[in-house]
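Shift notes (night). Ran Methionyl-tRNA formyltransferase while the centrifuge was going.
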Amino acid sequence: MKVVFLGTPEFAKTSLEAIHNSNHEVVAVVTVADKASGRGQKINQSPVKIFAVDHNIPVFQPEKLRNPEFLEELRKLNADVFVVVAFRMMPKILFEIPSKGTFNLHASLLPDYRGAAPINYAVINGEAKTGATTFFINEKIDEGNILLQEEMDILPNENAGSLHDRLMNMGANLVVKTLDGLSESSIEEKPQPEVKHPKNAYKIFKENTKIEWSKSSKEVHQFILGMSPYPTAFTTLKIGSEEKGLKIFTGKFEIQPHGKPIGSLDISKNTFKIYTADGIYYPLELQLEGKKRMDIKDFLNGFRNFEEIQMA
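Came back to this:
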């Protein structure tokens, strides 16, 4: 089938590559506009664009998806289907163009974890399994009819970054299976199950990444794993008279009564403990504001006076 692919990050590029290597033909790619970033304001292209250019696939980068000229160019391609992976909200006038419809890859077992951060929240909530879903796009967010689903176990102590990469590869294969099924008319689309209280995966903002030490050790641990490596969970230290953010990427915990104030710490040249509601959390990989990411040994070696360090 002739495919127009819409996506931006590495997660999407992997699906694009899988389609390109299949029996289907990618006739065009739609991705975000190039952006200048960093001190030198270097122009950065999305991973999807880089792949498309390297493989001589036409690229569209419209500022507005309702642009009449852009829509007309897509219609001229006579694509059978549009495939969407990690893109943005699409207007009906766009997703209704192809004859076989437009489907999206979502990194959860819908209807659970609709929204922008399904991988993070599956880990934060301590789920034992997650998966990927392909579904037809409609005018509601992540609520269209399901085409295919595939489950994946979440490994013990797995962080969001590891799970992202595994789902990225599973999802790419699921996208090709979905294209094969649509081509052969062998897939029966099904409405998403009605769930009274579906688990949500709202977009994560900076204020959502602060660690709440008043929670259980297990909840704290899962929160840190679910935010690692990005956007990263943080807490705040007071070093002397100065407050500094501390990102925590990984650690371990033990459940035990301690009689210490919740959210307080013990720190020395050999150990770093933070007291939770029901135990102790031990950061193992962290990054102090203004410093690079490092393991706990190097972090502790950077201090001389431990008595001046406390939780802010």
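The first strand starts at residue 2 and ends at 7. The first helix runs from residue 10 to 20.
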